[in-house]
UniProtKB/TrEMBL annotation:
Organism: Streptomyces rameus
Glycosyl transferase family domain boundaries: 75-261
Boundaries of every Penicillin-binding protein transpeptidase domain copy: 362-641
Domain of life assignment: Bacteria
Name of the molecule in the record: Transglycosylase domain-containing protein
Biased segments, Gly residues type: 764-779
């Protein structure tokens, strides 16, 4: 028996013998007979035929991976994504030139032989023996189709791909059996159609339609002779004959195909010669794959939709099932994205925060009552080029959906505390002393009978933003001015558990998946949240107490053959988080924030709006979260790495000594919501009457909220002012707000121990609704 050459590998005779053995075996398979066990070749053949009989009889054509198209809620394309760029088309939609060219160069006897071409086998054996190697193959188009089936089934698993392409006798035998089955069931035209749809044409293009678009920017049905010959020639070696990277080699290969077509009579020699003289005529299109191609800055929303498919059990019980669905593609996903809102969000972000700024911004808009995500954007572009300030981290969503660990929402969490208090029976006129600085009250009840206690030796303390902020305050003014000490006193009064429960009902959870800490400090927004979470929570106020889980997908269809099959999609679950009265109370409180409080720069003019500012300790983050009755949105600005404090900083070309929630996020919110709501109805809130803490002139509370006592006589004004100051514990020129039961922190008079008739405090005669002395009034 010939020995191996010194350089390794088989000699030409050994290669020929091996190839001949496989080929004879193929003939034996077709004839349904077993070869005699004669020598090593015979034994191998005998064992292989036995294995042939044990191969399962049925080969199912795989569901070919195709493009998935993602649409907005108007049906406009956002992006196309795919693991393999392929668009399956019928044979009638493929140029006849392509059909003839691929048969001519890959399997000239395709219409004359069965699954295996014995003449082709013998010709290849002779050619390979002469060349001293495997210069020519003998696989038919049917056998190649089976091989591609195996590769398609392997997906992106490198081990399975290697098994599907390994040059072993066992694989060839399995390939042969399935080729026989396919020939019997499909017929020649269907085999050719499947082959042209599955084959790889290089440059990320799978199937002739994708290849036609990639190289010529046209449909496969419109390909001319020379274009068809070029594509047919690529198939044998997509890297070697790549016309984009090696025009000369690709041209030579194209001309070989043209000549072969002439030899077979598919075209005349004259037609072949004329086509050979023409340039390749490439008109390439760049691959448009993935969320990086999304329009209107919707890359992050596109990625969120992908995450939904990969994580929601409605798309498959297991992670593997969902991944298979996504990778196979062929999906048309209609989303909730509103193009007007999305465009407005991105325009506002671009105007206010540059992608190269030391901090970033993220914004999300949702629809109250449905949970639909209408827009999602950020200043850092979607992509993998970090040198271009790109990122694939979606700053708007939770960590398990492709986001970061979240950001402290600061005072935007206070309305959740207020909602828990009002829902639990606290009046919105509730007052607390609210000093500028104080230790956290202790003890405070928590969930499950637990109690939070401050350290008696080194008590944790907090203070308000400015020293001028000291109470007493009622809920309206404390919310408008975002008074920290008020809200800590409020949560200490009602307990931590009602706040945690209310947060849960409103869908408020930490972005990193951890449980919310049970400490009074949560009232100040110390737990990291995402913009989507906060926007959805505030939508609860807008929908008068109904919380709806956020959704991004409205419908999904999957292409199966030539039909579209509808798939189930996740639905928003809406539940009552609070009574309508509580929600309306919060809308009344938060409307005051944008009218008279810290959020005035976020106001929408004549359109009713409500919201809350938030700025964290050390200014690592600033927020504005707000809503109208028909849209809710959240804007966060900060350093995703939690390292850059927003002091002495320039954002969007504007320098800031200190960043506040109403100063940077507020205008972003205002502009994005203005554009998103343009042309849409402007309904009003269901407001309720919340008496101002000092709007009680008949009880001598200074001059806030009522008519001045100008119609009364001088005596009435003087006495009313004096008593107002005494009973409110304030100063003559208006110190910290007081009331009739508790002296103001800044008052200069002690709390009186006597009581006076209400009409005496009003003033004498026709003395208006209250005295004109500024007793306790805060402006």
């Amino acid at each position: 028996m010939p020995k191996k050459r010194s350089g390794g590998g088989l000699s030409p005779m050994q290669q020929a013998a091996k190839f001949l053995g496989v080929s004879v075996l193929a003939g034996a398979v077709m004839a349904g007979i077993a070869l005699p066990a004669a020598g090593a070749l015979g034994l191998a053949a005998k064992g292989s035929v036995k294995g042939f009989d044990e191969i399962p009889a049925n080969l199912k054509s795989p569901q070919l991976s195709q493009r998935t198209t993602i649409l907005d809620n108007q049906g406009n394309q956002i992006a196309t994504v795919y693991s393999r760029d392929r668009t399956v088309v019928d044979l009638k939609d493929i140029s006849p030139y392509v059909q003839k060219a691929i048969v001519a160069i890959e399997d000239a006897r395709f219409y004359k032989h069965g699954a295996v071409d014995l003449k082709g086998v013998l010709r290849a054996v002779n050619k390979n023996a002469q060349e001293g190697g495997v210069a020519q193959g003998a696989s038919t188009l049917t056998q190649q189709l089976v091989k591609n089936y195996f590769i398609e089934e392997a997906g992106d698993d490198p081990t399975k791909v290697a098994e599907a392409t390994q040059q072993t006798l066992g694989r060839k035998i399995r390939e042969l059996k399935y080729a026989i089955q396919i020939e019997d069931k499909l017929g020649k035209k269907k085999i050719l159609e499947n082959y042209l749809n599955i084959t790889f044409f290089g440059e990320q293009a799978y199937g002739v339609e994708a290849a036609s678009q990639r190289y010529f920017s046209k449909h496969a049905k419109d390909l001319n002779l020379q274009e068809s010959a070029l594509l047919a020639g690529i198939v044998q070696s997509p890297s070697r004959y790549d016309p984009v990277n090696d025009e000369a080699e690709a041209t030579k290969r194209r001309n070989t195909v043209l000549q072969r077509m002439a030899e077979l009579g598919d075209i005349s020699q004259r037609e072949a010669d004329q086509a050979k003289e023409k340039p390749l005529g490439l008109h390439t299109s760049r691959p448009k794959n993935g969320c990086i191609t999304a329009v209107k800055g919707a890359g992050f929303f596109c990625d969120y939709a992908r995450q939904v498919v990969l994580t929601d059990p409605v798309f498959g019980k297991t992670k593997e099932e969902r991944a298979r669905l996504w990778n196979q593609g062929g999906l048309t996903i209609r989303t909730t994205l509103d193009p007007q809102a999305q465009e407005s969000v991105q325009a506002s972000i671009k105007d206010h925060v540059y992608k190269s700024d030391p901090v970033a911004t993220a914004a999300t808009v949702v629809e109250p009552g449905t949970g639909k995500i209408l827009a999602m954007g950020q200043s850092r572009p979607y992509g993998v080029n970090t040198n271009n300030d790109e990122t694939t981290i979606n700053l708007s969503v939770n960590q398990d959906m492709g986001g970061g660990a979240g950001y402290q929402p600061g005072s935007t969490f206070k309305p959740i505390v207020a909602a828990a208090a009002v829902e639990g029976g606290k009046a919105p006129t509730q007052e607390y002393s609210s000093p500028y600085e104080m230790a956290y009250p202790s003890p405070v009840s928590a969930c499950n009978g637990k109690v939070w206690r401050n350290d008696p030796y080194r008590p944790a303390k907090l203070k308000n933003e400015n020293e001028s902020e000291h109470g007493p305050y009622g809920m309206s003014e404390a919310t408008a001015k975002s008074v920290n000490t008020y809200y800590v006193q409020l949560i200490s009064d009602i307990g931590i558990c009602p706040v945690v429960d209310m947060a849960k009902k409103m869908g408020v959870a930490r972005a990193d998946g951890r449980k919310i800490d049970q400490a009074p400090s949560i009232a100040l927004g110390t737990q990291e949240m995402s913009p989507l979470t906060m926007a959805s929570a505030y939508a609860t106020f807008a929908s008068r107490g109904m919380y709806c889980t956020p959704v991004a997908i409205e419908s999904v269809t999957k292409k199966v053959g030539s039909e579209q099959k509808s798939l189930a999609v996740p639905k928003s679950t809406c539940s009552r988080a609070m009574s309508e009265k509580t929600a309306d109370t919060l809308s009344t409180l938060l409307k005051g924030v944008v009218e008279d409080g810290t959020g005035q720069e976020a106001g929408l003019g004549s359109r009713p709006s409500a919201g809350k500012t938030g700025t964290t300790d050390e200014r690592y983050a600033a927020w504005f979260v707000g809503y109208t009755p028909n849209m809710a949105g959240a804007v966060w600005v900060g350093d995703p790495q939690h390292k850059r404090k927003m002091t002495s900083i320039t954002i969007g070309g504007i320098p800031h000594d200190k960043v506040y929630g109403g100063e940077v996020p507020g205008p972003i919110w205002r502009d994005m919501m203005t554009g998103a709501l343009e042309g849409k109805p402007a309904p009003d809130f269901h407001l309720i009457d919340i008496p101002d803490a000092n709007d009680e002139g008949d009880q001598g509370k200074g001059d806030r909220g009522g008519q001045d006592g100008n119609n009364g006589d001088t005596t009435g004004q003087v006495i009313g002012g004096l008593i107002g100051g005494l009973t409110n514990g304030g100063t003559a020129n208006g110190g910290a707000t007081g009331d009739t039961s508790t002296g103001g922190i800044g008052g200069t008079f002690p709390k009186p121990t006597f009581s006076l008739p209400g009409n005496f405090i009003q003033g004498q005669g026709n003395g208006g609704n209250n005295g004109n002395g500024h007793g306790g009034g805060r402006h």
